[in-house]
Amino acid sequence: MSNFKKETKILKSLKDVFEIKGSVKSDKRISIKADKKNVSSILLFLKNQKGFIHLNHISCVDWIEQNEFELVYIVWNPKTRLTVMVHTRIKRDEPVMENIDTIWDQANTYEREFREMFGIEFPGLIGAKEFILEDWDNIPPMRKDFNSQQYAIDTFSTRPGRENAQNVREAIQKRSGEEIPDFAKKYSRD
Amino acid sequence: MSEKNTIGIPTVEEIKQAQIDFSPRCTAAGRVNDKETQKMVDYILNFARKHSLFVLAYGTGCGAIEIPATMTSRYDAERFGIRGAATPRQADILMITGYLSTKTLKRVIRVYEQMQDPKYVIAFGSCTINGGMYFDSYNTIKALDRYLPVDVYIAGCMPRPESVIRGFVKLQELIQKGNAGNGECYRENLDWYRENQQKVIKNWDFPENYNW
Asked: Of A126, B91, B156, B186, which is the most buried if we count CB atoms within 10 A?
């Protein structure tokens, strides 16, 4: 295997320009952590200077323990076949993130989905209105503090017959004696 | 020609003279005054209906993937008279294939109400029965028969084409007995259905009165 020459070079060029933490995850995969305000300039730099012209994916993670959302931008260079993952964290209390659909048009769809499913606002977003859900009047459903099962019981008429259904985590614990971590107990559905 | 034959089959003249009620609430069978004639008419109509089941080509969930397999040469559903129909007005059967989100439910109700009598509903897959693997989902309904009258449930996740055809055969039996087709039941109990539907569909913008 190579010594990650290409990867280290990209990482170094990024570290020269921006204040970031980062590492080479594995062959052709570079992961960096950046501040919220730097993200769009990092993405522009990667797109225009380094040939990462393809936006693979944007994903959102709800870190409810740390009261933060994590956004991950994954970009790809078709010539060198390198992937860069740009991680950034925003506060859960005021979820506002810079709109990047001027850099990649397809980011618009992701951002509209985050707006609806996590409640993250993107100032200047085109088409910032109802997207997938219809007439939703509760807290955004992909947030960790939304209790989906309770909502389903309250809203829909259910049918008996599921009483014997087991909680997967507890069933595994009973069978193998595995301990449930404390953070998981907090979100147990029982 | 006026003599009745021994097994009670009506003569041609009697069928011609029989007054058929064309009231708008006229259900599955054409109405005939004479009881014996009515039985005969029902039998013929039901026989014809059960062998020409037109299924609306509308898939709501993952289950729609089993329909092409059922229709094509290996399982060949058309030997039972089952085939696709392009629009709700031409269709006899509404198949709810798999999970049904609340957003789709609104459209499905609209489609069902536009279908002509006699109309049948086949609910397909365990999601329509009790929610299936989406039992705790915030956006899918759990029991379809609270919102639409269901004739036949096909259990399974997914039901294979054999089970689908078994469901259709069951529906054919019901049609022949005259027990299928809940359009009238739906109209009579409309208040109950509407109450359930409005619990789920928040922005209610349906017309108050249909010309059924």
From this structure: B91
**Nearest residue in chain B measured CA to CA from A160:** B130
Question: Other CB atoms closer than 10 Å to residue A43's CB: what's the count?
Answer: 22
Quick check: is A189 in a domain? no
User: Pseudo-torsion of CA B168, B173, B178, B180, nearest 10°?
Assistant: -30
Give the minimum alpha-carbon distance from A28 to chain B in angstroms, rounded to a whole number: 35
Option in A138, A148, A159 nearest B143 (CB): A159
Structural domain B55-200, CATH architecture? 3-Layer(aba) Sandwich (3.40)
Give the pLDDT confidence of B141-192 residue by residue, as tens digits.
Answer: 988 888 999 999 999 888 999 999 999 999 999 888 888 878 888 888 888 8
Structural domain of residue A123, as residue ranges? Answer: 5-161
What ipTM was estimated for this complex? 0.76
Q: Which of A180-184, B115-119, B152-156, B204-208 has the lowest mean pLDDT?
A: A180-184
- Decide if A163 touches B, using CB distance below 8 A: no
As for how many domains chain A has, the answer is 1
- CATH number of the domain that A112 lies in? 3.30.460.80
